[in-house]
Amino acid sequence: MATRRKPHQESKGWLSKFVQEFGWDVLLGSIAAFYVFMVPYTKVEESFNVQAMHDILYHRHHIGKYDHLDFPGVVPRTFIGSLLVSILASPVVLVLHLLHAPKFYSLYAVRLVLGCITLSSLRSLRIEIRRKFGYHVEAFFVILTSAQFHLLFYSTRPLPNIFAFCLVTLAYSSWFRGDALSTLKCLTIATAVFRCDTVLLFGTIGISLLLSKSVSMKEAIKCCISTAFLCIGLTILVDTIMWGRVLWPELEVFWFNSVLNRSSEWGTHAFHWYFTSALPRSLLVAYPLFMLALLLDRRLWQYIVPVFSFVLIYSKLPHKELRFIIGAVPIFNVAAAITASRVYNNRKKTLWRWLYIGMLVSILISLGCSIVTFMASYENYPGGYALKALHQSVGTTNTTMDRRVHIDSFAAMNGVSRFLENNPPWRYSKEEGITLAEYHTRNFTYLLSEHSKIDGFQCLFFVDGFSKARLRIGFPPIILLREPKVFVHGNIGHEDIALSNWPGCL
C-alpha cells in the first residue's frame, strides 16, 4: 500500500528540484541585478540604445522627438534590440507611470529585462555544458563566471555587443548540441543585425563545422543566405523608418570600421593587447585554466581553436576594447571549467591536492580583483551622480523658476541619459560646440561641466570620479584614488541660486 508524502517532504522535494534546475541561474542573476542597482548609469558606448529605449517608451510614435535625430553618433545603429527590450519592459514602465514614479526607475526596468535575455542565453549554454561535460563542469563554469567581473557587469548594459553576445551564446549552445544549422543561423543574425564584426567568429566556426562534416557546403550556404536576407530585410525596414532614410546600419558600420579603418581614431593598442591585457583581466583565474584544458581534454580543440582564431584575427584591428571580444569569454570559461573539474576530481592525489588548493586560492583572488574592479566602476559615472545630486538639492528649495540645465560632452558620456531627466520646469540641453565664454549669454540655470571655473557662474559643488589604483603595503593592498570630475555650476544672475547654501568647490 502506497504511503502519502508529508507536506514538509513535498515542500522539501519541490525546493530541491528548484535549486537543482534554477539555482545557478539565481546566483548569476543576483550578481547581475546587484550591478544594475549599484551602477545604474550608462556610458557613451551605451548611449544610442539607452536613449532609444527611453524614446520608444516615452515618445512612442513621435519619432521627431527622438534623441538620435539630434545626436546621431558616428555611425548609425539598429533599433531592433532597443525595440525588443522596450516592448518587454513596457508593462513594468506602464505600472511605474501609473504610480507617478520617476523615469529613473524605468532605467532599472530596461536593464533588468536585457539582463534576463542575456542570462537566458547563458542558461541555454549551461544546460548544454551539463549534458555534454557533466555536473561538475557546469558548476565550475558558473563559479568561474561569478568570480569574474566583466561578463555579468556587461550583461545588462545596452551595447550592440551584448545583443550580439546573446545570439553568439545561443550559437554555442547549438554547437554543443550538434545542431550546425542553428549555430550558423544565430551567428548570421548577430552579424547582419547587431555586430558586423561577428562575421569573423562566423567564419572560424563555419570553417570548423565544414571541416568536421557537421554540415555540407550546400546546406550551409542555403541556410546562411536565407537567414541573412530575412535579417537584412527586417533591419532595413525598421531602421529606415526610425532614421528617415534607407539604411542597413551594420553595412555602414562595416564600411566605417573595416574599409575606412576610422575606428583607430578612438585609440589603438598593440597586436597582443587582447591576450596580455583584456583576456587576463576578464577571465582572471580562468585564463591559465583554459590554457591547461587544451592539454587535458582533446574534445575542446574543436571549440577552442575557432574562438581563439577569432580573437587572433580581430587583433589585427588597431582599435581594441574588451567588449569587442566578449563573445569569446563563455567558451574560454567552459575550457577552464573542464580543467577545474579535473583538478577537483583528482584532489585526493598528492600532486593534484596542491593544484586544487592553488586553484581555490586563485578563485578567491579573482573574486577580490572583481570587487576592486567593481569599486572602480562604481566611481566611473560622475555625470549621472552629479545630475542626481542637482535634482535632489534643488528639489528641497522653494522656487518656481524655469530650470535650464546644460550638460557638456564629458558629463553626457559619463552617466547622463534621458532616463535621468525630470519633468518641467526642468529643461535640458546637450548642445555641443559652446565655448566657455558663451555660456553666460545662453541663460542656462545650471551647468554640468568638466571645467571648475566658468565666467558668470558660481561653482555649486563637484562630484569625484575614479582616477587610478595604487598598490601599497598593508590592508587593503590596493586603494582607489578619486579626483573631481564633474563640476555643477549655477548662474549667478538667478537670485534663488545666490541665496541658497551650496557646498561650493575648493
From TrEMBL:
Question: Does tRNA-binding count among this protein's keywords?
Answer: no
One GO molecular function term of this record is: dol-P-Man:Man(7)GlcNAc(2)-PP-Dol alpha-1,6-mannosyltransferase activity
This enzyme catalyses:
an alpha-D-Man-(1->2)-alpha-D-Man-(1->2)-alpha-D-Man-(1->3)-[alpha-D-Man-(1->2)-alpha-D-Man-(1->3)-alpha-D-Man-(1->6)]-beta-D-Man-(1->4)-beta-D-GlcNAc-(1->4)-alpha-D-GlcNAc-diphospho-di-trans,poly-cis-dolichol + a di-trans,poly-cis-dolichyl beta-D-mannosyl phosphate = an alpha-D-Man-(1->2)-alpha-D-Man-(1->2)-alpha-D-Man-(1->3)-[alpha-D-Man-(1->2)-alpha-D-Man-(1->3)-[alpha-D-Man-(1->6)]-alpha-D-Man-(1->6)]-beta-D-Man-(1->4)-beta-D-GlcNAc-(1->4)-alpha-D-GlcNAc-diphospho-di-trans,poly-cis-dolichol + a di-trans,poly-cis-dolichyl phosphate + H(+)
Ordered alphabetically, the record's keywords are:
Endoplasmic reticulum, Glycosyltransferase, Membrane, Transferase, Transmembrane, Transmembrane helix
Q: What is its EC number?
A: 2.4.1.-
Q: Which Pfam families match?
A: Glyco_transf_22
Output a single Gene Ontology CC term carried by this record. endoplasmic reticulum membrane
The way this protein sits in the membrane is described as: Multi-pass membrane protein
Pathway terms, separated by semicolons: Protein modification; protein glycosylation
Listed under GO biological process in this entry are: ERAD pathway; protein N-linked glycosylation via asparagine
Report the subcellular localization.
Answer: Endoplasmic reticulum membrane
Q: What class of enzyme is it?
A: transferase
Question: Where does the sequence pass through the membrane?
Answer: 21-41, 79-99, 133-152, 187-211, 223-248, 271-293, 300-317, 323-344, 356-378
InterPro entries according to UniProt: GPI_mannosylTrfase (IPR005599)
Which PANTHER family does the protein's record reference?
A: DOL-P-MAN:MAN(7)GLCNAC(2)-PP-DOL ALPHA-1,6-MANNOSYLTRANSFERASE, GLYCOSYLTRANSFERASE
Family per record: Belongs to the glycosyltransferase 22 family.
According to its UniProt entry, the function of this protein is described as:
Mannosyltransferase that operates in the biosynthetic pathway of dolichol-linked oligosaccharides, the glycan precursors employed in protein asparagine (N)-glycosylation. The assembly of dolichol-linked oligosaccharides begins on the cytosolic side of the endoplasmic reticulum membrane and finishes in its lumen. The sequential addition of sugars to dolichol pyrophosphate produces dolichol-linked oligosaccharides containing fourteen sugars, including two GlcNAcs, nine mannoses and three glucoses.
- Can you say what this protein is called? Mannosyltransferase
Give the source lineage, highest ranks first: Eukaryota, Viridiplantae, Streptophyta, Embryophyta, Tracheophyta
